UniProtKB/TrEMBL annotation:
<comment type="similarity">
    <text>Belongs to the TRAFAC class myosin-kinesin ATPase superfamily. Myosin family.</text>
</comment>
<keyword id="KW-0963">Cytoplasm</keyword>
<dbReference type="GO" id="GO:0005856">
    <property type="term" value="C:cytoskeleton"/>
</dbReference>
<dbReference type="InterPro" id="IPR019748">
    <property type="entry name" value="FERM_central"/>
</dbReference>
<keyword id="KW-0677">Repeat</keyword>
<feature type="domain" description="MyTH4">
    <location>
        <begin position="1"/>
        <end position="173"/>
    </location>
</feature>
<dbReference type="Pfam" id="PF21989">
    <property type="entry name" value="RA_2"/>
</dbReference>
<dbReference type="InterPro" id="IPR038185">
    <property type="entry name" value="MyTH4_dom_sf"/>
</dbReference>
<dbReference type="InterPro" id="IPR000857">
    <property type="entry name" value="MyTH4_dom"/>
</dbReference>
<dbReference type="InterPro" id="IPR019749">
    <property type="entry name" value="Band_41_domain"/>
</dbReference>
<feature type="domain" description="MyTH4">
    <location>
        <begin position="614"/>
        <end position="764"/>
    </location>
</feature>
<dbReference type="InterPro" id="IPR011993">
    <property type="entry name" value="PH-like_dom_sf"/>
</dbReference>
<dbReference type="GO" id="GO:0005524">
    <property type="term" value="F:ATP binding"/>
</dbReference>
<dbReference type="InterPro" id="IPR041793">
    <property type="entry name" value="MyoVII_FERM_C1"/>
</dbReference>
<dbReference type="InterPro" id="IPR035963">
    <property type="entry name" value="FERM_2"/>
</dbReference>
<keyword id="KW-0547">Nucleotide-binding</keyword>
<keyword id="KW-0505">Motor protein</keyword>
C-alpha cells in the first residue's frame, strides 16, 4: 500500500532466478519452527516497522524480500489466504484496518486494488462475511461495487488454486476488465471478458452464446505455452489460474510475466454419441474447419490415399464451387494435403489426382450442398478419428475380473470407454450400454458391467470421469428407443399372443425424452413381433442410439433377470428420502439426544424419530458430519434450521421480521455464500418435508426448496438424492424444483444474490414467471416473462428476435432510476442485477419485506455502440432506436448544425412525429421546443421561423413518417458527432480547453466540444487514449499527443457511464481487429498440434 518504503526498484534481479511464490510459500508452511525461531522473528518484525530499510529481513519467513516486485508482494498475500484458510479473516481485517481513516489517497487506492485481488482469490469465513459486506456497502462505490460483485462470484465457485496473474493485476490497477483472446478453429479470434472467478465452463458457454451454438457437448478450452499444450476441458477450474500458472512457468524460463507467450484455443475434444452435423450450422463450421486443418497438419491421418483424395475433392467443391476451370486447384492442394506427402510426390501429382476424384465422384454434375459436404467430412472424422476425439485421464490402476493394469490412460468418446497402456495397446473397451451401475469414491470410480465383474478405476480425476460417463449414459438413455422388460406383463385388451415376458427386448415407438408425463408406451416385442402398450416403469431403457451386438443384449437380459441393474431413468417410482444418504454423510443421531443409554426405544427408532425425517425439535448440532467439523459454520447451521422452522410456521417468531427477509437472509444467503452450508440446508429442508403431514408447513417448505434450487445446486454427492426426492413428490412445486436443478446443471452458475422479493412472490403464488416491462427509446414498452434463470443476454436476444433487429451486439440493457443510469452485464442474471442495483446503484435502505420498493428501477434497452448505425443499414433500428436516441441530442443543441439545415431538420422532425397533421402549426409556442434546438432561437422571431418550417414541410409532402425519420438520420449521419453520447462536464486543468464543455463519445473517439458554439475543440482517437480512471466526482482521461502524455481531469458525477462506454468501444474495436487476424497458424507444439 506504500505505507513503508520500498526499494525494490533499485535492485537488479535476473528473471527466473527466484523461486515461484506458491513454491516459496509452501516451503514456509512445511518448515518446523522452534520457539527461538519464533521469538527472533517477532523481534525482527518489530524492528522492521521502526527501521524499514535498515532491518535484515532475509531470514524472516512469510515476508516478501526487498527485491520482490509489487506483483510478487500481492501474490504472496493472496497465496497465504489461498493455501491457509485460517489466515483469510486476518488478511481481510488487516486490510480493512489500513483502509479506515487512511489520510493517503495513494495508499487507499492501492488498498482497494489489493482488496479486489483478495475478493477474486478467497472468501472470508461466515464469522466475518456480514461485517465485510457492511464495510463494502459504506466504501467508495467505484471500488466497493466491483469488489462486492467479485466476492459473491468467488463464494459461488470457491477458492482459486493459484495467486493472481500479471494480466489481472494490471487490469485491477487500471480498473479495467480482463480481455482474453480465444483462437477458434475456423481461423478467427475473439476477445472474451473474464474475471478471476470465471470458470472454463462459463467461458465456453459465453463463446457458444456469441457464436450462436446450440450444442456445446464435447467442446473444450486448450492453453498452449511454448511447446506444451494442456487441455482445460469444460470444467469448474478457473481460466485465470491456468494463465497465472503459465506466467509462472515463463518466469522460471527467464521470461517476464508480461511477455509470456500463452495462447488459448476453443476446439472440439470429443464427439457425443448423438451428434448430428446437420442440426447446428455454427457447430458444424467449427468442427469441419478443425478436421480440415487437422488433416493438413497430419494430426488426423486418413488410412489410405484414395480416402484422402476423395476428401480433398469434396472440400475443394465446397470452398471453390465457382472455380469451373480448376484454376485454384494447385493452391488448394498446398493448403490441404499434408506437407509430408507433398514432399514425396511431383508437383502436379496431387492436383491431377484430386481433379480425377472430383469427376469420379460426379461433383461437377451433382453439386452437393455445403451442409451435405460438411456433414460427410464431420462424420468421417467422428468414425475414423474416434481415438483422437476423446477425453483422456491418467489412471494409476485398473482392476477387472481377468486383469490388473497400472499406470494406464483411459479415454472416453462416443464409442465408450477404452484403456490403453504405455505402448498404446488397447487393453479394455466398455460400451456405455453394458454399464449397469456406477459407484464413485473420492479417488476411484467403479463401473458395474453386465454379467461381468465390476471394473475399478483409481484416479485423481474421479469427479470429472464420473460426470462424463454419467452424462453420456443419461443422454443416451433419453434418446434411446431400445428397452428390456423388467417384469411379465399381459395387456388386458390385447391379443393373447402379445404377452410380455421378463427379459423381452422391446422397441419403443417414442424415445424417453418424448415420454415425459406418459404412464404407458407402445412397444414392439422382438420375440413375438407384436405391439403392446406397457407401463413405462416396467421398461429398462438401454443407453444406446444404435443397434447393439446380440451377445451384449444377451448379457444385459441376463443381468436384468438377476435384478442387479443400477438406477435407470425409467425405474419404478419409490418414496425416497435421505435415509440412504444419511448412512454415510449424517452424524450419528444419538448425538442430539440427552441420554445415550442403549434401550429398546433407541435401538428401534421409528422413521419419524430418525435424523433424516421431520422433527418438531430444534437441532443442537448440524446434520452433516463435515458441517459439524467446521467451527465457522457449526453454529450458523443450527441457526439456519431454527429459521427454517420459523419460516415453516413451526415456531412462534418473536421478531417482527417478514417471511421474505427470514427466508432470504437466514436460509438462502448462507447456502449461496458457503458451499459447506449448501448441502446442510438442502438436507434440513428435505428433512422437514419428509413425513410431514401439515399442509401449511409443507407448502412453505417447498417454497424454500424452490427458491434454493433456483439459486444454487447441491453437490454431486447429494444431487441424485435430491432429484429422486423431487421425482417422487406430487407437490405442485416439485416439478419447478426439478426444472431448476436441470437448468442449473445445463447452464451452470450460482446466483450472486438470494432471491428477490418478486421471485419469492412468484413461488408463493406458484406462478411460472414474473412479467416485467422493458422500455424502448421510442416510448413504447415490451412485456417480458422472466424467471430466476433469465440472464440479461436472454432478454436482449428475445427482444432482438421479437423486433427483428439485424444484430444484438450493439445494444445493451440499462437500469434507470431518477437521473442515474447503469449498464447491465450480459452474463448476469436479471434478478441479481435488480438486487445489486437496489443495494449499490439506487440505494434506498433495506429492501422492503412486504412489497416491491416504490422507486423500482426501469429496465431500458438502448443502442450503445453505434458501429452499424448508418441510416438504412437496419430500418427497424432506425425507427425504434436511432431516431429516438438522436432526437434528444438534436433538440438540446449538442450538434453543430448549419442554420439552413436546421429548418429542413425541423420540418422532418415535425413530419416524423405528427405525420400529415398540420394543426400543430397553429400553436407555435408549444411546438417550437419539440422541433427546434434551443440555441437556434436566440434573437430570432418565432413566427418567421415557424413559417419557414411550415414551408419546408409542404415541400416534403411526399414523405411518409418513416421516410421523414430516415431522411433526418441521413442528414445527421454526415456530422462527426453522429451516434454520440454527450456528457456535460467541467475542467480546470488544461488551459486551451473551455472550462465548461461537452464530451462526445462515439465510434471515432472522444470529442471535446465548446458548449456555446458547439465547435469540436479537440478529438482523440481510441489509440490516443491508453488509460482513464473515475470516481464519484470526476473522470480522468489520459491522452497521448505526439511524444507527450497528458491528463485531463473532468468534473462529473457520471464517470461510471463514461468508463463503461469507453470500455465498450475499445473492446469492440479490439474484437474487430482480432477477427481480421488469423488465430490458427497450424503450428506444431511439442507432440500436439492445435
Amino acid at each position: 500500500m506504500g505505507d513503508i518504503p520500498d526499494d525494490a526498484a533499485d535492485k537488479l534481479v535476473v528473471t527466473g532466478s527466484k523461486s515461484p511464490i506458491p513454491s516459496k510459500l509452501r516451503s514456509y508452511f512445511k518448515t518446523k519452527y522452534s520457539k527461538k525461531d519464533v521469538d527472533d522473528a517477532h523481534r525482527k518484525y518489530s524492528d522492521l516497522f521502526k527501521d524499514p530499510t535498515g532491518t535484515d529481513t532475509k531470514s524472516l519467513p512469510f515476508l516478501s524480500g526487498m527485491t520482490d516486485t509489487i506483483l510478487e508482494k500481492v501474490q504472496l498475500l493472496c497465496a497465504m489466504g489461498i493455501y491457509r484458510p485460517s489466515l483469510r479473516d486476518e488478511l481481510y481485517c488487516q486490510l480493512c484496518k489500513q483502509l479506515s481513516n487512511n489520510p493517503s489517497k495513494n495508499s487507499i487506492v492501492r488498498g482497494w486494488v489489493l482488496m479486489y485481488m483478495f475478493a477474486g482469490s478467497f472468501a472470508p469465513t461466515e464469522s466475518l462475511a456480514p461485517s465485510l459486506n457492511s464495510f463494502l456497502s459504506e466504501g467508495p462505490p467505484e471500488f466497493s461495487d466491483k469488489i462486492d460483485w467479485m466476492l459473491r462470484r468467488t463464494c459461488s465457485v470457491g477458492t482459486r488454486t493459484y495467486p493472481p496473474s500479471w494480466l489481472e493485476f494490471q487490469a485491477a490497477k487500471n480498473g479495467k476488465p480482463v480481455l482474453v483472446p480465444i483462437s477458434l478453429m475456423n481461423g478467427h479470434r475473439m476477445l472474451c471478458e473474464v474475471d478471476a472467478a470465471m470458470t472454463v465452463s462459463e467461458v465456453i458457454r459465453n463463446i457458444g452464446e456469441r457464436l450462436g451454438m446450440n450444442e456445446l457437448t464435447g467442446f473444450s478450452l486448450y492453453i498452449s505455452l511454448h511447446t506444451k499444450i494442456s487441455c482445460l476441458g469444460n470444467s469448474q477450474h478457473r481460466l485465470l489460474d491456468a494463465i497465472s500458472e503459465s506466467e509462472t512457468f515463463s518466469k522460471q524460463m527467464g521470461i517476464r510475466e508480461n511477455n509470456a507467450i500463452w495462447r488459448i484455443f476453443f476446439r472440439l475434444e470429443y464427439f457425443s454419441s448423438w451428434h448430428n452435423p446437420e442440426e447446428d450450422d455454427a457447430v458444424s463450421e467449427l468442427v469441419f474447419q478443425q478436421i480440415r486443418r487437422g488433416i493438413k497438419m497430419s494430426e488426423y491421418r486418413l488410412e489410405n490415399d484414395e480416402l484422402l483424395l476423395n476428401t480433398a475433392a469434396k472440400v475443394y467443391c465446397l470452398e471453390h464451387a465457382d472455380d469451373v476451370g480448376h484454376l485454384k486447384l494447385e493452391a488448394f492442394v498446398n493448403s490441404f494435403i499434408p506437407d509430408s506427402l507433398l514432399e514425396k510426390r511431383p508437383k502436379d501429382f496431387f492436383p491431377s489426382k484430386v481433379k480425377a476424384s472430383f469427376y469420379n465422384l460426379k461433383l461437377d454434375k451433382e453439386r452437393p450442398s455445403a451442409s451435405t459436404i460438411k456433414a460427410e467430412i464431420i462424420t468421417l472424422g467422428k468414425d475414423d478419428f474416434d481415438i483422437l476425439f476423446s477425453r483422456y485421464y491418467d489412471v494409476s490402476k485398473v482392476v477387472s475380473s481377468n486383469q490388473q493394469l497400472t499406470e494406464v490412460v483411459v479415454g472416453v468418446n462416443h464409442k465408450g470407454i477404452f484403456v490403453v497402456d504405455s505402448t498404446d495397446k488397447l487393453k479394455l473397451h466398455l460400451d456405455f450400454a453394458e454399464i449397469v451401475n456406477i459407484v464413485k469414491a473420492k479417488h476411484s470410480l467403479t463401473l458395474g458391467v453386465a454379467q461381468q465383474e465390476s471394473v475399478v478405476f483409481s484416479t485423481n480425476h474421479s469427479d470429472d470421469f464420473n460426470n462424463l460417463v454419467s452424462t453420456f449414459i443419461e443422454e443416451l438413455t433419453k434418446r434411446s428407443t431400445t428397452a428390456i422388460a423388467r417384469e411379465d406383463f399381459t395387456q388386458l385388451d390385447g391379443p393373447q399372443d402379445a404377452n410380455i415376458i421378463k427379459g423381452d427386448i422391446l422397441e419403443m415407438n417414442q424415445s424417453v425424452s418424448e415420454l415425459v408425463g406418459n404412464e404407458t408406451v407402445t412397444v414392439l416385442c422382438k420375440r413375438t413381433h407384436k405391439p403392446c402398450d406397457i407401463p413405462v416403469n416396467l421398461c429398462y431403457v438401454v443407453a444406446t442410439v444404435k443397434p447393439l451386438p446380440e451377445d451384449m443384449m444377451v448379457r444385459l437380459v441376463g443381468q436384468l433377470r438377476k435384478g442387479t441393474t443400477g438406477n435407470n431413468i425409467m425405474e419404478p417410482k419409490q418414496q425416497p428420502n435421505l435415509q440412504q444418504y444419511a448412512k454415510s454423510h449424517f452424524r450419528p443421531s444419538n448425538e442430539n439426544s440427552v441420554s445415550k443409554l442403549l434401550s429398546k426405544a433407541t435401538l428401534k427408532k421409528k422413521d419419524s424419530e430418525a435424523l433424516w425425517s421431520y422433527s418438531k425439535d430444534g437441532l443442537k448440532k448440524p446434520l452433516l458430519k463435515r458441517t459439524c467439523a467446521r467451527d465457522d459454520v457449526r453454529k450458523l447451521a443450527t441457526h439456519c434450521f431454527a429459521s427454517l422452522q420459523t419460516y415453516m410456521s413451526n415456531l412462534v417468531c418473536n421478531d417482527e421480521v417478514s417471511n421474505y427477509v427470514l427466508c432470504s437472509e437466514w436460509i438462502l444467503n448462507p447456502a449461496r455464500r458457503n458451499k459447506f452450508l449448501r448441502d446442510e440446508i438442502y438436507c434440513q429442508i428435505i428433512k422437514q418435508l419428509t413425513n410431514n403431514n401439515d399442509k401449511i408447513q409443507t407448502d412453505r417448505g417447498w417454497s424454500a426448496l424452490a427458491l434454493l434450487t433456483s439459486i444454487c445446486p447441491p453437490s454431486h454427492e447429494l444431487y441424485e438424492h435430491v432429484r429422486a426426492f423431487l421425482k417422487a413428490s406430487t407437490h405442485p412445486l416439485s416439478t419447478i424444483c426439478e426444472s431448476n436443478l436441470q437448468l442449473k446443471k445445463k447452464r451452470g452458475g450460482c446466483r450472486l444474490y438470494s432471491s428477490h422479493f418478486l421471485e419469492h412472490e412468484m413461488v408463493i403464488k406458484q406462478l411460472p414467471n414474473v412479467r416485467i416491462q422493458l422500455f424502448l427509446p421510442n416510448q413504447t414498452t415490451q412485456t417480458l416473462e422472466v424467471t430466476s434463470h433469465t440472464k440479461i443476454f436472454d432478454i436482449k436476444k428475445s427482444i432482438t428476435t421479437r423486433l427483428k433487429l439485424s444484430s444484438s451486439s450493439e445494444y445493451s440493457l440499462f437500469f434507470s432510476c431518477g437521473d442515474k443510469v447503469n449498464c447491465l452485464s450480459d452474463r448476469a442474471f436479471y434478478f441479481d442485477c435488480l438486487s445489486h442495483a437496489e443495494v449499490y446503484w439506487f440505494k434506498q435502505g433495506k429492501r422492503s419485506s412486504y412489497s416491491v420498493t416504490k422507486n423500482q428501477p426501469l429496465l431500458v434497452m438502448l443502442k450503445k455502440i453505434w458501429v452499424n448505425g448508418q441510416p438504412g443499414t437496419d430500418p427497424v433500428a432506425d425507427q425504434i432506436f436511432h431516431y429516438s436516441q438522436e432526437m434528444p441530442n438534436y433538440l438540446r443543441g449538442y450538434h453543430n448544425i448549419p442554420e439552413d439545415l436546421i429548418i429542413k431538420l425541423a420540418a422532418l422532425v415535425y413530419r416524423g412525429q405528427f405525420g400529415s397533421e398540420t394543426k400543430h402549426f397553429s400553436k407555435p409556442s408549444a411546438l417550437i421546443n419539440l422541433i427546434i434546438p434551443k440555441h437556434f432561437l436566440n434573437g430570432k422571431d418565432i413566427d418567421s421561423v415557424m413559417k419557414a418550417v411550415e414551408k419546408q414541410y409542404q415541400a416534403d409532402v411526399t414523405l411518409s413518417q418513416q421516410e421523414a425519420r430516415s431522411t433526418f438520420l441521413q442528414y445527421l449521419s454526415q456530422l462527426n458527432t453522429y451516434g454520440s453520447v454527450f456528457f456535460e462536464v467541467k475542467q480546470r486543468v488544461v488551459d486551451y480547453l473551455p472550462k465548461v464543455c461537452l464530451i462526445a463519445i462515439n465510434y471515432s473517439g472522444v470529442h471535446i466540444i465548446e458548449t456555446e458554439n458547439k465547435i469540436v475543440v479537440k478529438s482523440y482517437n481510441y489509440d490516443q487514449i491508453p488509460n482513464w480512471a473515475y470516481d464519484e466526482q470526476s473522470f480522468t482521461l489520459i491522452v497521448v499527443e505526439g511524444s507527450s502524455t497528458n491528463k485531463i481531469l473532468l468534473e462529473t458525477k457520471v464517470g461510471h457511464n463514461m468508463d463503461d462506454l469507453l470500455m465498450s468501444y475499445v473492446g469492440w474495436i479490439m474484437n474487430y481487429q482480432m477477427r481480421k487476424k488469423h488465430g490458427y497458424l497450424g503450428d506444431q507444439a511439442g507432440e500436439s498440434i492445435v
